[in-house]
Design a protein that fits this description.
heterodimer, A: 464 residues, mainly alpha, 2 domains, 75% helix, B: 479 residues, 19 helices, 2 strands, 3% strand
């Protein structure tokens, strides 16, 4: 809860400060506020400090911050802080956008801590509406406008479907509270011969559609490549990391509630996961644009994370936490480097990395670490994340794990494009050199990925 | 742990210093692990099994960062930590790639030390892959025109082999009682014969590519020929030993039930490889290519010796691993120096080099004699033990494999004769201090092993006995 409060008030303060000053000098304030919410939630989870007074403001049957919720809030706030800091020199960064990012993050906090579907719905809306605006914040760019409109139309539509599912679930179970919702169907399932009402099944499917849309899982991923490509880089990273992790946490909570009847939904979810992995990776292979490739890579990662939903073990949320951490850090790193590498001559294609190893070896090193972590190559956090995910999902969904391994192998094909262009392609003489800012940050993130990859258990023992 | 970390830090230091680093600094940095290794020998000894000397929970409580030490590990560590300084000292040319090459070589030293010490299956796999990365960059960025094609073939071979090994290790992992990757837990998994053959196939595939055994060797010659000298030295001198070490350390104990199935195949392929490599080497004009095929022939004999499963074959194999490392690195160094002075390494264009530099010729001759396995040089005892072991297994095989001694003399002396003697228009420049030291280390190794091989065999004796016991126990269960 503390993270939600700090972020919200900081956002309001920043918005008001921005009324007087037009230039973007408040990024540092936002970073401090986000780091503060991250640290406070972490301390709260560890019991180092207690903000119980805040918890009492919202009834426990609406929203509840337990240990893992605090940890996820801490992670999300930390990632947002990194994103805001990394992209603080964004060309069209106004305080309004800073505020919108932080409001969106508030929605994410609501989504991870919800105990009531209404709260989940509110969270989705609070998360999404600022993003619709942010996607179109490059006002003069046609692609950005297109992204905004597409995201808005598809998002609004999927929210409608989600609401319809909510209505069905309410009709079938008589409650929208997480604790009450699952009881009736599980009970009915436990009694032999009692079929699950179609209303509940249909409701669950429709709600899942809404959430699968948010994580960009096939076949609800069509918006992702266009929106990712058109949006400003900072918004894209935010969508690829915060939104995805949040939606998976929320989705996991929802499905755990219906864990008693998991054999009614695990089948189609597993198939969707397979389709997502295969489609995301195969389509990623044939892309020419960096951001489009990364968009398909993020679709594939959504597919891997479907395995997590099928594990159905409350004590295993740390897998999602670690995976989210590894994936988000690598995404921020790769997006940051490609953001700074883009020139007028090479705005989208892989040619922007040509000769990077010669121009700026440390940036090339960071890029390699980020890309290898996404691909899941050992001694990067991405490998350990995949290892945990795959080895724990092996019992519940062996076929999906098999497809996941295959997909990981395919994905190396497009991840190596980055390395190939950075190390192998020679540049002709008068290439205008790109100046990289924040090299320190890039190296730091890369080092973090390597360190977390080299000793994940030390980190996880400390965190969970 | 230090012995893995120090070279990696040294690599970072070298990369950080850039042009300011020189041969002195890199040599000193590469020598530190040798001192650490000495303390390992004195602290932990070589008897009483594979002792755990470092242990930390890594990916979970049962997948740990565990390092072990015993005679076998010590021998391989001695090889890598003695030879990397030689490579860093004399094998790297002073051009624009020097810093990069030195840093990658030092990094490789750390990864190789990890491979030889890993006591956890997953860790072994990861260091195995990590050792591939520097050599991948070396061949990719420094081997001339066909770099991409050569590297791709090398990479695909090794990567597919490694994946097969990973699949086998994962299969064992999923069958352990407590989801552990530790050597002991993997070894305790009870496999049926069929399961064991599949698991063995996966593991063997990775090692067979690396060694390389006959049908998996086609990446070798091109990669050796076109890499810079340091790359060829690392690959042939030390990296191949990863495959042989893997056979001894991981394949034999983990899947002993499958050995009876694979034994005739592997020995047959190895002996075929011995002859094939030797015969092709005789016809080579390029010195590097000649050494590549001679290496194929020598290493195949080691594989055959190991698969006889006798203590003698295994001990001879380990000794010969060390010896082959010394000799092949020495020969590549010779070729590198010739090429640096004359600009060519084709036998047809060389000749009469002995006149210009006597001491160089003496070192070359010593290494050549060692490779040919003349008595009182290092090649003799190991080769003798290996051939004897193969003879005990099957005299006909030994007869065929024994031909290699003759063939080897033919191609090595042909190389010496065409390059050093006769008439020629080229000269070898006189040796610098670092080259003297490098050749000095190599020569001492050649003569020391030649005169007192028992010194080295004793180091690995208890480790080998342990492995042989495990294998014979597993055989006892089956029959």
């Amino acid at each position: 809860m503390i993270a939600l409060f700090i972020t919200f008030f900081a956002a309001v303060v920043i918005l008001f400060l921005g009324l007087n000053k037009k230039e973007s000098s408040f990024s540092n304030l936002a970073v401090v506020a986000l780091l503060a919410s991250s640290i406070c939630s972490f301390c709260n989870a560890k019991g180092l400090c207690n903000f119980a007074i805040l918890e009492s403001w919202v009834p426990a049957n609406m929203m509840l911050f337990g240990y893992s919720e605090h940890m996820f809030a801490s992670l999300l706030a930390f990632i947002s802080a990194v994103i805001v800091f990394a992209f603080r020199k964004n060309d069209n960064l106004g305080t309004d956008q800073l505020g919108l990012i932080m409001f969106s993050l508030c929605g994410a906090f609501m989504m991870i801590a919800y105990q009531h579907i209404v709260m989940l719905f509110l969270g989705i809306e609070v998360l999404s509406i600022p993003l619709y605006v942010l996607a179109g914040s490059k006002k003069e760019s046609l692609a950005s406008n297109e992204a905004s409109l597409k995201y808005f139309l598809m998002g609004a539509f999927s929210t409608g479907i989600f609401l319809l599912g909510t209505a069905f679930i309410y009709g079938g179970t008589g409650s929208l509270e997480l604790e009450m919702m699952g009881i009736k169907p599980s009970f009915m399932h436990a009694m032999e011969g009692m079929p699950i009402p179609t209303l509940i099944n249909a409701g669950l499917i429709l709600m899942s559609v809404g959430l699968l849309f948010k994580v960009a899982a096939a076949p609800f991923h069509f918006w992702a490549p266009d929106v990712y490509e058109g949006s400003p880089n900072r918004t894209t990273v935010f969508m690829a990391t915060i939104v995805k992790i949040t939606a998976f946490v929320a989705f996991n909570k929802l499905l755990s509630t219906f864990g008693g009847i998991h054999n009614t939904w695990s089948g189609w979810l597993c198939v969707l996961g397979m389709i997502t992995i295969v489609w995301g990776n195969l389509a990623g292979l044939v892309q020419n644009g960096v951001k489009r490739t990364l968009a398909f890579s993020s679709i594939a990662h959504a597919g891997y994370l479907v395995m997590f939903l099928l594990i159905l073990d409350e004590s295993k949320t740390w897998i999602l936490w670690y995976y989210g951490f590894a994936y988000a850090m690598a995404s921020v790193l790769v997006f940051l480097i490609s953001h700074q590498s883009a020139t007028d001559k090479n705005p989208v294609g892989f040619d922007m990395f040509n000769g990077l190893s010669k121009r700026s070896p440390w940036v090339a090193f960071a890029l390699v670490v980020g890309v290898l972590s996404m691909a899941g190559i050992p001694i990067s956090a991405g490998f350990d994340a995949k290892f945990y995910l795959f080895s724990f999902a092996w019992q519940s969904s062996p076929w999906l794990v098999g497809v996941g391994l295959l997909g990981s192998a395919i994905s190396i094909g497009y991840y190596f494009k980055f390395i190939k262009h950075a190390f192998l392609v020679k540049v002709e003489g008068d290439e205008t050199a790109v100046e990289y800012n924040d090299k320190g940050l890039m190296i730091l993130i890369a080092a973090l990925l390597l360190l977390a990859g080299a000793m994940p258990w030390v980190l996880l023992k400390w965190v969970f | 742990m230090e012995i893995i970390l120090i070279p990696i830090i040294a690599a970072l230091v070298t990369a950080g210093l850039g042009k300011r680093s020189n041969v002195w600094i890199s040599t000193l940095l590469s020598l530190i692990p040798l001192a650490v290794l000495y303390t390992y020998f004195t602290r932990f000894g070589v008897d009483n099994g594979w002792k755990t000397i470092f242990d930390l929970p890594w990916i979970s409580d049962n997948i740990r960062f565990t390092l072990g030490f015993d005679g076998l590990t010590g021998m391989l560590l001695l090889l890598s930590n003695l030879m990397v300084p030689v490579i860093v000292m004399a094998g790297i040319r002073d051009d624009e790639n020097r810093v990069k090459l030195t840093a990658l070589t030092l990094f490789m030293q750390g990864a190789l030390n990890g491979v030889f010490m890993a006591q956890d299956g997953l860790m072994f796999y990861i260091f195995w892959e990590l050792a591939l990365i520097p050599i991948y960059f070396i061949t990719l960025t420094m081997s001339g025109e066909n770099a991409f094609k050569i590297t791709l073939r090398f990479f695909l071979y090794t990567f597919i082999g490694s994946l097969a090994m990973l699949a086998s290790l994962l299969y064992l992992f999923l069958h352990t009682a407590d989801y552990s990757f530790s050597f002991e837990a993997l070894r305790a998994v009870e496999l049926s014969r069929i399961e064991s053959i599949w698991v063995g196939t996966g593991i063997l595939l990775a090692f067979a590519v690396k060694i390389p055994l006959l049908p998996f060797h086609s990446w070798q010659a091109d990669t050796y020929t076109h890499s810079p000298a340091a790359g060829s030295m690392l690959l042939s001198g030390i990296m191949l030993k990863m495959g042989l070490y893997g056979l001894l350390r991981w394949y034999l104990p983990l899947a002993p039930e499958s050995i009876e199935f694979f034994q005739p195949w592997i020995i047959g392929l190895s002996v075929a490889g011995v002859l094939y490599g030797a015969l092709i080497a005789i016809r080579q004009k390029d010195m590097k290519r000649l050494i590549a095929f001679s290496s194929l022939s020598h290493v195949a004999l080691i594989a055959a010796g190991i698969f006889t499963l006798t203590a003698e074959g295994l001990e001879g194999g380990v000794l010969q691993m060390f010896v082959h490392g010394v000799n092949v690195i020495g020969l590549f160094l010779v070729v590198e120096l010739i090429e640096k002075s004359t600009g060519t390494r084709l036998l047809g264009e060389l000749g009469g080099l002995a006149k210009s530099n006597r001491s160089f010729m003496i070192f070359f001759m010593l290494l050549a004699l060692g490779t040919v396995a003349v008595p009182f040089t290092n090649g003799f005892p190991g080769e003798f033990m290996l051939l004897k072991a193969v003879y005990m297994y099957n005299p006909n095989m030994a007869l065929l494999a024994g031909l290699t001694i003759i063939f080897c003399a033919v191609y090595i002396f042909r190389m010496v004769q065409f390059s050093m003697f006769g008439e020629g228009k080229h000269e070898v420049s006189s040796l610098k201090w670092n080259e003297y030291v490098a050749f000095g280390i190599l020569s001492v190794a050649v003569l020391l092993i030649g005169f007192v091989p028992q010194l080295f065999v004793d180091v690995v004796h208890s480790s080998i006995l342990q492995i042989v016991t495990w294998v014979s126990e597993a055989k006892g269960v089956l029959s």
